[in-house]
Specification:
This protein is α/β, with parallel strands linked by helices. It is 33% helix and 18% strand. The two termini are 36 Å apart.
């Protein structure tokens, strides 16, 4: 399917400039390495764009989807560098960006020491002043999907139970666009860490057609006490099972979304869709999808085997794959499979997007029998679809797999 003349996807939200010094092998502990008055010889600096606008937006561009980027930068050196990076992919990609006069652009200093986890120093900048009025009606006229990433890191959009963000999404939906939302984990020690995220979700999600958090993010926002209990026992994902996925998705659907998608890292992607055909109507009609095929579904697509180089942006790129599948009018099964495939391509490169090839190349790799990783999560009542190569849940189309077991 040729998308060259199709309406665009708008990717709006958080954007920043990532500044990454190359640290020496001798750097094992930043607390003893960075000392007052000290001088440390480092390697070359890597500069790249980050955030949902960059990661999901550029991944969509690489997949061949016409996309409009809409983030907010300052009129400073970092802002100009961010725009130059976007122009290096295609000059038009910088045209929808917002420039805030007199503001300092967002950036992240990333200290990546050998054999230890990364340390981030982040300045939010114009992300905090982004507001509903920054998205003009004229920008919405030729798009089908409006995807917004990381409002959980943007002050105007997380304060007051998300009412400013709800205002923006309500206007976008009034223009007939399908709305898509991704979040990131808020800093528990910052102002965002004090937000009642369940209240935020109840205000925002009625205006969201597709919600695509990680399972950890969803659990933290919906049931922080349960999240804290699981976190105290170790990593959260290995403790997740099919029952927890279903309960989280049911809460999200009850709060108003049509499609709940939970990213599961190396376990793949889970999806649950609304049983109400009326709720699915707007999404399926706007995107010319088979409403019956997309209503009341519960699926889990395993990820594909990949040569792991880095995981930066893998979730954002998987979202780009999901949205591309929708534009190609694929079935739910093929859309979910395409999403995990794009995410797997991403991890084969160190940066956030350069591992993503054209959509046709992704599809050829799937059709050639690309091997999948096993799903180790406990999935009681689920069944394996040999032809589609994914798991079908007990709530799928009335639960025809009920009684089975993984």
């Amino acid at each position: 399917m040729d998308l060259s003349n199709s309406p665009t996807i708008i990717v709006a939200g958080h954007v920043c400039l990532d500044v990454i010094p190359t640290l020496p092998e001798s750097c094992r502990d930043l607390t003893t390495w960075l000392v007052p008055g000290g001088l440390v010889n480092v390697g070359p600096m890597t500069i790249s764009t980050g955030g949902a606008v960059s990661n999901t937006g550029l991944a969509l561009h690489r997949l061949g989807v016409p996309v409009r980027l809409m983030g907010k930068v300052g009129d400073d050196t970092f802002g100009r560098t961010t725009l130059d990076v976007f122009r290096s992919y295609a000059p038009a990609l910088a045209e929808g960006m917002l420039i805030a006069a007199g503001e300092s652009s967002s950036y992240t200093l990333i200290f990546s020491s050998p054999n230890i986890d990364r340390t981030f120093l982040h300045y939010s900048g114009p992300n905090d002043t982004f507001c509903a009025a920054d998205v003009p009606d004229t920008a919405l006229s030729d798009a089908r999907i409006f995807h917004f990433g990381y409002p959980t890191l943007m002050r105007n959009f997380y304060l007051d139970d998300g009412r400013e963000f709800e205002t923006l999404l309500r206007r976008v939906k009034a223009h007939g666009l399908v709305t898509s939302l991704d979040v990131s984990r808020p800093d528990p020690h910052a102002e965002a860490g004090k937000v009642n995220w369940s209240a935020w979700l109840t205000h925002v999600l009625p205006q969201v057609d597709i919600f695509l958090p990680s399972v950890e993010e969803a659990l933290l926002m919906i049931d922080p006490a349960h999240y804290t209990t699981l976190e105290a026992r170790g990593e959260v994902l290995p403790q997740v099972d099919g029952g927890l996925l279903s309960r989280l998705a049911e809460r999200l659907l009850a709060w108003g979304v049509a499609v709940a998608v939970l990213k599961l890292g190396d376990q793949g992607i889970y999806m649950r869709t609304a049983a109400d055909t009326g709720r699915m109507r707007g999404l399926t009609e706007r995107l010319n999808l088979d409403r019956r095929a997309w209503t009341n579904r519960e699926l889990l697509a395993p990820t594909f085997r990949a040569h792991l180089v880095g995981t930066t942006g893998a979730g954002d790129c998987a979202i780009a794959g999901f949205l591309t599948g929708l534009l190609h009018k694929l079935s739910p099964e093929a859309t979910l499979t395409g999403a995990v495939a794009v995410g797997a391509c991403n991890v084969e490169a160190a940066d956030a997007v350069s591992g993503v090839p054209a959509w046709e190349a992704v599809q050829r790799r799937i059709q050639a029998g690309w091997a999948q990783l096993p799903v180790t999560l406990k999935l009681v009542g689920w069944g394996w679809d040999v032809g589609q190569r994914l798991w079908i849940g007990p709530h799928d189309h009335g639960g025809q797999w009920a009684g089975g077991e993984s």
